[in-house]
From TrEMBL:
InterPro entries recorded: Cyt_P450, Cyt_P450_E_grp-I, Cyt_P450_sf, Cytochrome_P450_monoxygenase
Family as reported in the entry's similarity comment: Belongs to the cytochrome P450 family.
Highest taxon listed in the record's lineage: Eukaryota
Cofactor(s) listed: heme
The keyword Lipid biosynthesis appears for this protein: no
Keywords: Heme, Iron, Membrane, Metal-binding, Monooxygenase, Oxidoreductase, Transmembrane, Transmembrane helix
Chief place where the protein resides: membrane
Identification of the protein by name: Cytochrome P450
């Protein structure tokens, strides 16, 4: 084991694992040799409970109130568990108590410590924190578990929209988090010249690391230059031929369903199309879902795994505990299985010589040229996940209307709500595509429209995504009259939408009627 805790590829930091392994035998040895411990065990219970409470208070005010602790959460939990066990054993040996009494006393001490720790956290967050003056639900300012419970069904986008209508454009949705629904936020947070850094949520993928998850601006910029080669004009010319092939396969499947008079769930078929394309560009191997007309097992694992990102996004430290300590738990198991699958496919891709360059080709070749292929495996594995799945200001932020956002605050700017601002769009909740071409007056403020993000963190695959959209749209619109299928009213695509890091829309059943050469339906 080499002094390292490892679960499904996740390892505790080496220093922490050594501390745990060295701490246990030393502490147990101390139980049998320390005379001071015996005298401590005979201190009155009220004094011991008082001492535990003081220790809990100091743990918050002197330790946990400073810095980031989400990645150390598994280690902290293990250390606390070991400490509780040692107290229990010491009580049995020196406290002259039976097992039940020793267990009860250990639980009382742990409860006293925990109560003081969490009470101190709540009081500080509600009455002394720099965000205490911002409006929002009372519990949201005290703990992120409120947010976890509220978005347990994957409808975080609807929750934030309700909060906007209740509290206004700036809402405190966490102890150190503000959700700001303002058209200038995309530019303020992601635009050129901003001083924002990525929040702790982006450590979700560790120990793998990827272009869109690294929190280091230097590492991001270095990696971005490699990715840019994979999406250059020269590279896109290679890709477009294959995009056309998959678009034509999609059209052929739709044509077959149309001839049989069957409805087409475009949410499903477009999902299959995009994943087949990205499988081709990530691993030089399609998932074959358009061909087989069924879900690939890896994509099924991914869809299950993404359910983890919805409810646990507000508490990344809890996700880390799950990754390291409970890899057998349902959605955690699916997430880890998906990561293992991506690692294996990337390993196969490294050994493969592709006939035509794909995105992974540029990433792998960059590592080979630096003789750092093995060293870069965590980057390559993380990038594989990024391809498939396709901020926090340091010194404060002042909006144009004078509102000041303190430094170190996690900022959330939800696109779903930005797209429904009355100040930005006329009839914002209605589907009126004409606003983007023949009725530009319906767009009052374009600053909030940033589907591919802005600045250094803008989507590196934007050109490829637009290419896919153009090919598929042109192909289908030029050949078919498209309408709702029988019994479909178009509401389920949004009604069943789930916010799982990427949007998971509901079903949308459409009818495709093939046009003749003269443009008439036939």
């Amino acid at each position: 084991m080499e002094n390292t805790f490892s679960f499904s590829g996740y390892e505790l930091p080496v220093g922490m694992s050594k501390l745990i392994w060295n701490f246990v035998p030393v502490s147990i040895e101390s139980l049998s040799s320390s005379h001071e411990l015996q005298s401590i065990m005979h201190i009155s219970l009220p004094l011991q409970l008082y001492g535990a409470a003081v220790l809990g208070l100091l743990s918050h005010l002197c330790v946990f109130i400073r810095g980031e602790w989400h990645m150390q959460a598994p280690t902290i939990l293990i250390l606390y568990s070991i400490l509780s066990l040692l107290i229990f054993l010491a009580e049995i040996r020196y406290g002259a108590s039976d097992v039940v009494s020793s267990l009860s006393k250990t639980l009382l001490l742990a409860s006293s410590y925990s109560t003081a720790l969490f009470t101190s956290m709540v009081i500080y967050r509600k009455y002394f924190h720099r965000l205490r003056h911002f409006p929002g639900p009372w519990l949201a300012g005290a703990t992120k578990f409120w947010h976890v419970y509220q978005c347990r069904d994957g409808r975080n986008h609807l929750l934030l929209e309700r909060l906007r209508q209740q509290y206004g454009p700036i809402i405190r949705t966490g102890p150190e988090e503000l959700t700001i629904i303002d058209p200038e936020m995309p530019g303020a947070v992601d635009g050129p010249g901003n001083n924002c850094s990525k929040a702790i949520w982006y450590d979700f993928l560790l120990p793998e690391i990827a272009l869109n998850t690294t929190r280091s601006k230097r590492d991001h910029d270095t990696r971005r230059r490699i990715w840019d080669r994979g999406f250059s004009a020269k590279a896109l010319a290679y890709y477009e031929e294959r995009v056309v092939e998959y678009a034509e396969t999609l059209e052929a499947r739709i044509a077959e369903l149309s001839r049989r008079g069957e409805p087409v769930d475009v949410s499903q078929w477009f999902y299959w199309f995009t994943f087949d394309v990205m499988g081709e560009f990530a691993f030089a191997k399609s998932f074959g879902m358009l061909r087989d007309e069924k879900w690939h097992i890896a994509v099924v694992m991914l869809r299950k795994a993404m359910r983890l990102l919805g409810p646990l996004s507000p508490v990344p430290w809890l996700a880390q505990i799950g990754f390291y300590i409970a890899p057998w738990m349902w959605v955690v198991r699916d997430w880890l299985a998906m990561l293992v699958w991506c690692r294996e496919r990337m390993g196969e891709r490294i050994q493969m010589t592709a006939a035509k360059p794909d995105v992974s080709h540029w990433l792998i070749e960059a590592s080979r040229k630096r003789n750092s292929l093995e060293k870069d495996r965590e980057w390559l594995n993380g990038d594989a996940v990024t391809i498939i799945i396709a901020g926090s200001p340091a010194a404060g932020l002042t909006l144009t209307d004078g509102r000041y956002i303190p430094g170190g605050t996690t900022i959330v700017a939800p696109r779903y709500s930005l797209a429904r601002l009355e100040s930005c769009y006329e009839m914002p909740t209605c589907f009126v595509p004409e606003r983007w071409y023949s009725r530009p007056e319906m767009v009052r403020d374009r600053r909030g429209f940033a589907p591919f993000a802005l600045g250094r963190y803008s989507c590196v695959g934007k050109a490829l995504a637009m290419s896919e959209l153009r090919f598929v749209t042109a192909l289908l619109v030029s050949r078919y009259d498209i309408g709702f299928a029988k019994g479909e009213d178009g509401t389920s695509v949004l009604r069943e939408l789930r916010d799982q890091f990427t949007a998971a829309p509901g079903a949308l059943n459409l009818s495709f009627q093939r046009r003749g050469l003269d443009g008439q339906t036939g």
